[in-house]
Amino acid sequence: MLLKKQTVWLLTMLSLVVVLSVYYVTSPETKTADLAAVDKGKKTSESASASNKKDMDVVTDAAGDEVFEALRLDEQDKRSELRQQLTEMVASPDLTAEEKNKAYEQMQQLTELETKEKVLESLIQSMGYKDALVRADGEKVLITVKANEQSKKAANQIIQKVGDEIGEMQKVSVTFEPEK
């Protein structure tokens, strides 16, 4: 059963809300510090500016994460459309068996590609990075990593891990996005 774009989008957004809720509830920051700074309903300018900076940091973190998630959703949408087209081709009575087999093979390659991307993202995160976005298209692998430190050595380590995982060496590009 194929999920429609709207359903996938809704489930993704609900998942994001759940993750943010869990993060908010389990964050180690206590709210008593903010309460202690309140003097008859007013914050001092020093505590208010510190609180505002803290709020801005949370917003920029979320914005950085939103970029990764938006890219993931965009890629998911494109692949869902492609998968739907391939499924229609396989089910079409107008195509030959050879054409249907070719479409089915493309569907399998698409699934394998998505699995490789997820494995590589997990592998890169296990190297100590906050997040990684891997986009592969058969010819090249584009990797964006959230990290404050940007070095050729780190990029080479990531490229080596990718090469070890996917076997055949493809063009691999690593870019770093600073953590906020």
Brief write-up:
This protein is α+β, with helices and mostly antiparallel strands.
Overview of the molecule:
Keywords: Membrane, Transmembrane, Transmembrane helix. The chain crosses the membrane at residues 7-25. It holds the Pfam family SpoIIIAH. InterPro entries: SpoIIIAH, SpoIIIAH_sf. The protein is of the alpha+beta class. The chain has a domain at 63-177: Stage III sporulation protein AH-like (Helix Hairpins), CATH 1.10.287. The chain has five helices and five strands. The chain has a three-stranded mixed β-sheet, with helices on both faces. A two-stranded antiparallel ribbon has the order 1-2. Strand 1 (38-39) and strand 2 form a beta hairpin. The two termini are 40 Å apart. The relative contact order is 0.09.
SSE topology sketch:
Elements: H1 5-26, H2 32-36, E1 38-39, E2 42-43, H3 45-91, H4 97-126, E3 131-136, E4 140-146, H5 152-166, E5 171-177
Parallel strand pairs: 4-5
Antiparallel strand pairs: 1-2, 3-4
